[in-house]
Amino acid sequence: MRALFLLLAALLLSGQRDPVLVPEVSQHDVQVRQGFTGTELLLFGAVLDPAGRAGQGYDIVVVLKGPSEPIRLREKERFAGVWINAESNDFRSVPSFFAVASSRPIEQIVDEKTAAIYEFGTRYIQLSPSGSINPELQLRFASGLVDLKQRQGLYKEDFDGVQINENVLYQARISLPSNVTTGTYTAETFAVSNGRVIASAMAEVEVRKVGFERFVALSANNWGLAYGLIAVLLSVGMGWGAGRLFARL
C-alpha cells in the first residue's frame, strides 16, 4: 500500500490526469515438471486516479491469453456408416489459452463493439481465419473451435471473477490446466468507466518446461530425426522385452 501511495503522489506532482493501472501477477514463471497438475494465477493490482476518484465507478476486466498458433479444423461427416473428413477451415492465429474475468457481466460494462475490440469474451476472440469460405460456415467452424477448447479446459469465462476492494484494489484468480502450452502468456487488465476503456496495462507470465520434460521437448525440436529414431528403437525394444517376459510366463 505504501508503494501505491508513493506512486499516486508522483502522478499528482507530474500533472497526470488519466487513471493508471498498476497490475501484478502472483507467478511470472510457471514451471512445468513431471506430474504437473496445473496451477492458479492470482492477478491483482490497483487503479490510481490522480483526480481523486480512486476506483469509484470503475469496472475491471482481465484477459489472459496464451501463445497463438495456426490450426486446421476439420468437420467429420458420416457417409455410408463411416465417419470421414468433410469441410475444413484454417485459422492463422488461435490463442492456445484464453480466459476472461470481470467484475460484472460484460454486457453490463461495455457495448458489443467495444467488447469485440478488446476481446472481452470467447465469442469475441480474433481467430484470423484464412482462405475463402462461406461466412455461415466460418461462424460454425469458429464456434466449434471455441467449444472444443472449452471442453479441454483451455477457454474460460468468469463474469463475476474480479473482486474490487476499497474502491481501488482488485484481484482475480485464473486456473491454468495441466495441458497448457508453454510460452509467453499476456495478462491484460482494463479499467472501464461509463462503457469506455479508460486505462489498460499488461503483465507477462512465462510457462516453461523444466527438468527431463524440457530435455525431451528440446530434443524433439532440435534433433527431430534422431529423436524419432530413438523413440522407435525404444518402442521396439520395450515390445520385444515384453514379448520375452510373457513368453516365459
Describe this structure in words.
This protein is an alpha+beta fold. The protein folds into 2 domains: 2-209, Immunoglobulin-like (Sandwich); 211-249. Helices cover 29% and strands 41% of the residues. The chain is built from 5 helices and 13 strands. The chain has helices spanning 2-14, 112-118, 135-151, 212-222, 224-248; strands at residues 20-25, 29-32, 39-48, 59-65, 68-79, 82-95, 98-102, 129-130, 155-158, 162-165, 169-176, 183-193, 196-209. Strand 10 (162-165) and strand 11 (169-176) form a beta hairpin. The longest helix is centred in the last third of the chain and has 25 residues, at 224-248. The model is unreliable at 1-15 (pLDDT under 50).
Number of helical runs?
5
Q: Assign the CATH architecture of the largest domain.
A: Sandwich
Give the count of structural domains: 2
Largest sheet: 6 strands, mixed
The total beta strand count reads 13
Structural class: alpha+beta
Percent of residues in β-strands: 35-45%
CATH class of the largest domain equals Mainly Beta
Main β-sheet, spatial strand arrangement: 2-13-12-4-7-9
Query: What is the rounded Rg?
Result: 24 Å
CATH topology of the largest domain: Immunoglobulin-like
What order do the helices and strands follow?
HEEEEEEEHEHEEEEEHH
How does the overall form come out from the CA principal axes? flat
Report the mean per-residue pLDDT as an integer: 80
